[in-house]
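hi support,

uploading two proteins for the ticket. first:
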Amino acid sequence: MQRATYLKPIGLFPAPADPIEEGFAGLPLAGQALSFTTVELAERDGTHITRRIVTLGDAIERDWGRATLLAAQDLEAITAPRPRIAGLALDRPRIMGIVNVTPDSFSDGGLHDQAEAAINHALQLAEEGADILDIGGESTRPGAAYVPAEDELARVIPVIEGLRKRTDKLISIDTRKAEVMRQAAAAGADILNDVSALSHDPDAMRIAAATGLPVILMHAQGDPRTMNDNPQYDDVVLDVFDYLEGRIAACEEVGIPRARLIVDPGIGFGKHLHHNVAVMASLSLYHALGVPILLGASRKKLIDHICDVPNPRDRVPGSIAAALAGSAQGVQIVRVHDVAATYQALNVWRASIAGTAEALR
């Protein structure tokens, strides 16, 4: 369903340690150490879209007509602290480390496609600072072939079982298939991560609800085999918002509460460069959905398009830049290949905006 109005917090800055004492007039951003005093208002009537800057005072006091309730709900959603996900607090950027148990993933396919190698790699990522270990047995890169469920299960279940015995870090299963979700949950997975937002497998919504686990809903336009052939949007930023809002509503209808949901705008999934950078520039808009945001831009093609870096393993600097850009807009989780580098960069960034290393404790 298409909205008429959208609010995006902009001009984000570090929240003061004592807002009352310092005479602070802004609002907090989703429980993060960031605040805002200004929003961008987008108004949409079919394909006609206007955007303008509105001060926080005007946003609160303005008579929005029929959209008054929606605007008030958006502000409440933007400012409310996010609940813990599987016990993990989201008051600072968290790192999800990528563990591809596949022969054909775009960046590291074949490096960890045996169970013990994947387990060892995941444990290394945990040591480097990963809060979540994301285990995937099917590549969803552009042009990737479909992997049968039995093959995917043979790849990921031994890894999840092995990790569950050796680490207390959160484990997520990156899959589109209901049976993989069910067996992964039974093996000890803590989070379901579905690039199709529970739309690929007709049983996925029911199984996800039955597991009781948090779910990451990602936006993608089309199937991995063809998604980047000719993606079309009226306005990619707003279209992604509408899609994710619809998937959240669908989850709530089957008993998956909003407190167990995370959204991912899907960088690189059915999006060309101009789509990807537009979404990156507007990540803070998605706080109005009232759930945590995950950003997955690590080593992706947009870095090559911007910087001419054809080898994915050479895209670490661009990946760190994307992670910092997302964190500066309040993204709660960054999904990355290079955990140690990202952990170091995020800690320096957090200390720099806070003005004290005490912020890291």
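and the second one:
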Amino acid sequence: MVVRSTQNTQIVVVGGGAAGLELVRKLGAHFGRRDHDIILIDRNRTHIWKPLLHEVAAGSLDASLDEVGYRGHCHRWGYRYLHGTLDRIDRQQRRVYVGPILDPRGREVVAAHSIRYDYLVLAYGSMTNDFGTPGVADNCLFIDSRGQADVFRDQLLNQCLRVSRSMQTDPASDAHVRVVIVGGGATGVELAAELYNAADALSYYGLEVFDRSRLDVTLLEAGPRILPALPERLSDAAKAELEALGVKVRTGTAVTASLLSAMEIAGGDQVPADLQVWAAGVKAVPIQNGLDGLEMSRTNQVVVRPTLQVIGDDRILAIGDCAFCKLPGQEKPVPPRAQAAHQMAETAYVNLIRLQKQKPLVHFAYHDHGSLVSLSRFSTVGSLMGSLVGGRLAVEGRLAKFVYMSLYRMHILAVHGWIKGLAVISVGHINRFIRPKLKLH
């Protein structure tokens, strides 16, 4: 007589970003809890779509209304959520080791522990790469998470209050809020524009003498132009829009060090700053005690095969920003972008099902749908790619804004499903009219 094992198939997903959260939602909906145990591990308790963090940082978006709580989401979709940070993995024993959870006073809430897995998906995301530039880690702010965005917003508001108070005390004061942003990619450009949107709204919230003329934003980019992923015409259009707002855009300007109150650039000159934001470069989040010999790229990403399985271990997959996926015939790896994470989640979902049925796996195929950059309420620029437009199509204005918002709506539908997703989108439209323009707490 054959005795059937009562142990469920355990699929562990590390990281609840765009890729990980979409994947566990699909797996939970497909398998349920009867024969499978789908587990999501994340160091945060809530999820917010990373492309929105610049709005959280500027106070234009209240993350409390737009974030997804993992505990409520897992109950709805049939997976389990564990709060914790990946410490290491043991491939021979098939175990994931999670570090201890500490409270703000350093007291242990949950001890370090391990979790077995039958299949493991690494989706722990990326962080800003400071390239070892002196002083950046100590003096600069980053916007990689909800917590970091909140810290920036608090410091921005404090500085605005200082300037407002200085102007009330001395109307002839030349006080300014000086913000220097390093990195002319999407994050840096979008944040620069969003700051002016926030400055325009501050006069409604007790800072009657403060306006955008008191905001001094400088965007530093080491390359020859901002937004290198876009066609040059759109890059130039975005630069012109930023300069019309008041942003000082300086391309071909490499930062050599971050000082306490200034950025030092090549040649020895300094750019004064009350707030310094580093948004140049991306690398995978480091894992404290490693990944048991998995092959890694120079940017600390896990090297994967076209099936998204890691090199040398068929039971482990990597998706999203932490995956280094160089497809056959391509010179460059798949870029760390939200659309790539979304597509990888779908391929990983299919392959995890096929692995258990011992069927041949499908290869990941990246479809670049273009790039879009929102300059807050002022403008949107970008390029769309696909057979419907005959290749690459440059878009600006209302069409670009509509497509940009559609990307977020697609993410909402992927995370919540059609019924609740449409409800969330509808509530979002209502909130645009009834909630405050700025989050100031």
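thanks. also noticed: The chain is about 35% helix and 25% strand.
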